[in-house]
Design a protein that fits this description.
- By secondary structure, this protein is α+β, with helices and mostly antiparallel strands.
- It folds into two domains: 67 residues, OB fold (Dihydrolipoamide Acetyltransferase, E2P); 84 residues, no CATH class.
- Helices cover 18% and strands 44% of the residues.
- It contains three helices and ten strands; from the N terminus they run ββββββαββααββ.
- Strands 1-2-3-5-4 form a five-stranded mixed beta barrel. Strands 6-9-10-8-7 form a five-stranded mixed sheet, sandwiched between helices.
- A hairpin with a 2-residue loop joins strand 9 and strand 10.
- The longest helix has 10 residues.
Length: 157
Amino acid sequence: METKTGTFLVTHGDEGAATLTDVSDRQVHALAEQADPPLEQGEVLTATLESAGDIDVAWRLRAVDDRRSIPVEESPEPPTKQERDIATEQGVGELTRRERAGEGEIHVLTVPEETTEQAVADVREDPETVARAARLGVDRVEIRAADGVVSVRYLPN
């Protein structure tokens, strides 16, 4: 029986089923049965899975070491001076990733000014935002925006 230990994002969860995606290799794992209490879309698990059959099509939760949500929130604060400077140096449509002093990362996106709000909504609603936070081992995501600049801050608690 194959097992896999890792960090997983719940990409689907309802009464009878759940689907997990490994945040490291993006492999998708369909659970043969829902957990108790049920897993909800957007949750992050550090867990061990075991195959539920011979061909590793369905999986079971063998052990859950951590189960949490990673909030993705919009801040009323504008991007920092450093983030605005990065945006000035790059063209529209470009993304720069920088490690934070300490833990986490900062991503700076330069977008057309008229699409700033839509870019913020896209980042907030994208499951990859939470998956990236889980990969980085951080506890929250903060989005800051000003005309044409969106900063996504992956932060410790």
